Amino acid sequence: GAGVPGGLRGALTARPAQDWEQRQEEDTLLIERILLLLRNVLHVPADPAEEQGVDGDASVHDRVLWALHISGMDDLLKFLASAQGEQQWALHVLEIISLMFRGQDPEELAALGQGPAGAERGEDTRELETLRQRELAERRARALQRTSRHSRFGGSYVLQGLKAIGDRDVVFHKGLHNLKSYSHDLGKETRRVPRRRQAA
Predict the structure, then answer these.
(1) Which residues, other chains included, contact 39 with Cβ-Cβ below 8 Å and sequence gap of 6+?
(2) Which of 8, 20, 83, 99 could tie 42 with a disulfide, CB 3.0–4.6 Å?
(3) How many CA atoms lie within 13 Å of 8's alpha carbon, on the beta-carbon side?
(4) For 128, how many CA atoms within 13 A lie in the half-sphere containing its CB?
(5) What is d(CA 87, CA 181) in angstroms, rounded to the nearest whole number?
(6) 170 with 162: CB under 8 angstroms?
(7) 65 vs 48, 51, 72, 119, 157, CA distance in Å?
(8) Does pTM surpass 0.70?
């Protein structure tokens, strides 16, 4: 937990001026016990049947690694691996680091810093393109359904300056594009003239 790194940090930095030769025996034992405990915790094999996690959920191993990162233990391990005076712990640190990367695919780890993998990105792009095409097709179908139903109402307009019965302006009930063909007889039935009465 969070107390383990503190013990290791205290043992490593309690007397920073002292070299590893002047460190007390109990400090050396404490560091070794903490490193062995960490190695043993990470060495526990994963049991997917017992974890019963959903896809994309962090495994127990991943959660342990996250807890180590939050507590600062990974920084201490980097310090132990790189410090010239702490070479006696090199094999322990190497074993812990190899257990931290257990079960990881090297190609996935290399691609983690670059965002999603190329194959996943291509698959996501194809899926998004399919969804976009489907949405465009639905939009076109809706537009076609709307245009098939037409309102016959073209609007009502008052023609100023053209008088109707009773000194009122004419009210025109057709579209404005029909205004050129306006006459007072518009909309009236034409009387049929029998053939024998038609003018020659």
Answers:
(1) 92, 95, 96, 99
(2) 99
(3) 25
(4) 6
(5) 103
(6) yes
(7) 17, 16, 11, 27, 78
(8) no
User: For residue range 125-138, what is the model confidence (pLDDT) as tens digits?
Assistant: 889 999 999 999 99
* pLDDT tens digits for range 61-77: 788 888 888 988 888 88
C-alpha to C-alpha distance for 11 and 141, rounded to whole angstroms = 73
Residue length, the chain? 200
Give bridge partners of residue 158 from the DSSP assignment.
171
What is the number of helices (H) and of strands (E) in the chain? 8, 2
Which three-class secondary structure state does DSSP give residue 130?
Answer: helix
Cβ atoms 80, 45 nearer than 8 A: no
Q: Which residue is listed with tokens 């100023």?
A: 160
**Contact at 8 Å (CB) between 77 and 96?**
yes
